[in-house]
Amino acid sequence: MNHRDAHAVARPIGLRKPCALSGESKAMVITHRHEISTSGQGDAHDITPVVKRVVGESRVRDGLATAFVIGSTAGITTIEFEPGAVHDLDVVFEDLAPRAGAYRHHLRWGDDNGSSHVRAALLGPSVTVPFKDGELLLGTWQQIALFEFDTQPRRREVIVQVFGE
Length: 165
Fold this sequence. Notes:
This protein has 4 helices and 11 strands, in the order βββββαββαααββββ. The chain is an alpha+beta fold. The model has no long low-confidence stretch (mean pLDDT 90).
């Protein structure tokens, strides 16, 4: 399994927008889009620095940060992002949804990524992390990771949305 730190291209897709949760609310929503190139099934990227950067640049002090990957063959979670844990998770996914398995998706579309869709559905496309005083409230060994499940290299779009005051 390949794994790397994410080298993303940040593109803001929304400006600071006030949220009218109450008459005096100073809540804001900030949305950024990032592109990450992956090498195919088994590739993983630590996107914690990307999320931290978006939170820091937002100047929102307290709130929630969500990282969401667009597409149905990748997922995001938290994990201790080190080669052993990343490999172990890949082994679990191979046991649950083997790449060489028989998938009806292959019959319908004539492709080979049925395992990719199943793995992504099991992991999910997003994670939400609280932050306080501009710092993500992650554990010492907890990072935010993007996992590529597609059988081919992809350019992934990760949306980071910050909500708070």
